[in-house]
Specification:
Helices cover about 40% and strands about 15% of the residues. The protein has about 425 residues and is α/β, with parallel strands linked by helices. The protein has two domains: about 80 residues, no CATH class; about 290 residues, no CATH class. It has an eight-stranded mixed β-sheet. It has a three-stranded antiparallel β-sheet with strand order 1-2-3. Helix 1 crosses helix 2. The relative contact order is 0.12.
Length: about 425
């Protein structure tokens, strides 16, 4: 009887010690997180609060948004987080899993395709309302004698060679097909870069990063060439220097090996799918710009200088920084509500590009052919609607560049 009691005491003591060690470990990692990333977390929470106030959110919505941002910031900045993620991903690879559940399993479950590339799930959506808004926009632009083109960016999952795991549906290409069909019925000019990939016999997976959903820089440059050549050939608007700017021989091309862990890769770690190479392309000819970055809360920052000086954010090209550094944001630095770009080397041509994140390595090249290029992001610009913005500004061309994956975010479409 005494022996049983002693064993029970030992068992309880062991459980108590495990609990104490666990609590101390969590506490120590929490302290380390606060010391190393506390200021970053604080700044993100303050920004979320300011954004909520600027958008006139209710007290309940504001509180919820701030709490969500705090939780997200702590999760993303947790001390040695990537080491834990790497170990977890390595085990998933050893187990042969092609589905890895993230904390937010509904929206962030990572799938490894048959070709080894990572992707996220997609969902069906009726795009009739979105298409109607685009058609209404096109009719309005016609009344102002402004050209309009809708460019369908390619999706990581090929329409013609579905590499998704068995049982997973590809809704993004279906949505893109439906959107383009609705726009063509309204006689809207469209460029489907998915079809251009097929025509040029390009290996689809070579256009995309393994660990990120975006297209590679050479793919974005290829897409730019397709679009600007179409504009030059088919539209009666001022376009300059196309022969020069579409020749890759006129650019510096810098290759960096094993340096980029993309957004999907950061969810599952380097050991699960590896690390991507990164290619950086910039002009090897004279350029001169004035550029204004419009941030949230109507704040702005102006840059002057060459293409490299105003378009490129060198911190993302620092190869001494971890692979988790977002190399994709080397162009422009990320998504902004509005960019106003003046090309001082050109006298005419004014375009507005309405883009999602696929425009980051695309739109800077477009600016080489026009005196003025403005870049508008529907997801972030809150000062006025796109239609209101167009009423106040004149353009020769409005160009939509959209990836089907972002239809969920650009729900209004106007």
């Amino acid at each position: 009887m005494k022996l049983l009691k002693r064993l029970e005491v030992d068992k309880n003591l062991k459980q108590y010690l495990i609990a104490v060690i666990f609590i101390l470990a969590i506490f120590s990692f929490g302290v380390s997180t606060t010391l190393t990333k506390g200021s970053d977390i604080k700044q993100r929470v303050i920004t979320a609060y300011k954004n909520g106030r600027a958008n006139s959110l209710s007290a309940n919505q504001l509180l919820k948004g701030v709490i969500n941002e705090f939780e997200s910031s702590v999760n993303q900045n947790f001390y040695k987080r990537l080491a834990f993620v790497d170990i977890f991903g390595g085990f998933q690879r050893l187990l042969g899993k092609n589905v890895v559940n993230d904390a937010d399993a509904v929206n962030s479950t990572v799938y490894k395709m048959k070709n080894g590339q990572l992707t996220l799930s997609s969902y069906p959506r009726d795009l009739t309302s979105t298409a109607k808004n685009v058609v209404a926009l096109k009719k309005y632009l016609e009344s102002k004698s402004t050209e309009f083109i809708y460019v369908q960016a390619p999706h990581k999952v090929s329409k013609y060679d579905n590499q998704l795991p068995v049982g997973l549906e590809d809704y993004n290409n279906v949505k893109a097909d439906e959107m383009l069909e609705l726009l063509k019925e309204a006689n809207i000019r469209t460029i489907d870069l998915r079809e251009e990939i097929q025509k040029d016999n390009i290996v689809h997976e070579d256009m995309f990063y393994i660990t990120d959903h975006h297209w590679k820089t050479p793919a974005a440059f290829w897409g730019y060439c397709k679009v600007i050549e179409y504009i030059d050939k088919n539209l009666d608007i001022p376009v300059s220097n196309v022969d020069v700017t579409t020749d890759l021989n006129n650019y510096f091309v810098e290759e960096y090996k094993d340096c980029f862990l993309g957004s999907q890769g950061r969810r599952v770690g380097k050991l699960y799918a590896g690390v991507d190479d990164y290619t950086f392309i910039h002009p090897n000819f004279d350029t001169s710009y004035e550029m204004v970055y419009h941030y949230s809360h109507s704040t702005t920052k102006e840059f002057t200088g060459s293409f490299y000086d105003v378009m490129v954010k060198e911190e993302y090209l620092d190869m001494t920084a971890p692979a988790s550094t977002n190399r994709y944001a080397a162009y422009l630095g990320g998504d902004y509500p509005l960019l106003v770009i003046e090309n001082k080397m050109i006298d005419e041509g004014r375009i507005l590009i309405v883009q999602d994140s696929f425009g980051l390595p695309f739109s800077p090249f477009m600016s080489l052919n026009f005196a003025y290029t403005e870049v508008f992001d529907l997801r972030h610009y809150k000062d006025k609607t796109l239609m209101e913005y167009l009423e106040e500004n004149e353009f020769d061309l409005v160009l939509f560049l959209q990836n089907a994956n972002n239809y969920e975010q650009n729900q209004d479409g106007e």
